[in-house]
Amino acid sequence: MEINADFSKPVVIHSDQIEWQPSPMKGVERRMLDRIGEEVARATTIVRYAPGSHFSAHTHTGGEEFIVLDGVFQDEHGDFPAGSYVRNPPTTSHIPGSETGCTIFVKLWQFDLADRTQFSKSMEAELGAPVGGVATATLHEDDREIVTYSRLEAGATLTSEAPGGIELLVIEGSVTGNGEVLARHDWLRLPEGHRLFVTAGDDGAKIWMKTGHLRFAAAPRV
């Protein structure tokens, strides 16, 4: 399966226009944003857990990175409420689920396979003081990528010309730019050489962004 698998092209997804698709586990549905592969895949996905649903135990051979968009995600490592950012590197395993239900944005098979750093953070707790109406937290940084979380006041702008491509998810609020209006849970991917320039709407915006990583985009090695 290939979905938005040409990383040389810009992609915009308005997630509320995508139908929820069932996963192999009852009560767990997903909206696929990009994908190379079948159930083992390099994938970027919004996943919704119904109350009381869970996946069976599994190992993330290629790593897993996610943010909790609403509700509380749970596994044997703890409870992760909305606003959590979690990195489970290659070789880690867990039994994910949610007693109350939750929605997450998750990326699979996009780690350096030698990475073994596992952590979780509250994105809001990491924010610095605002500059020009934008408060930003660096959630993760290595030789491959930089992951940030930004909170924009109404009318504030967020820009990037980062090498290696840009990916953005609107967590709350809305932004206008790059020829699009992006609202809650909308997703944008820009290849290397493209500039990001977005302005927050009247209610401001909360933005998750990753840069540099598209240089390493490829199908998983299994």
TrEMBL record:
Recorded coiled-coil stretches: none
Residues in ChrR-like cupin domain copies: 9-111
Domain of life: Bacteria
InterPro entries xref list: ChrR-like_cupin_dom, RmlC-like_jellyroll, RmlC_Cupin_sf
Pfam family, any one: Cupin_7
Protein name: Cupin
Natural source organism: Vreelandella aquamarina
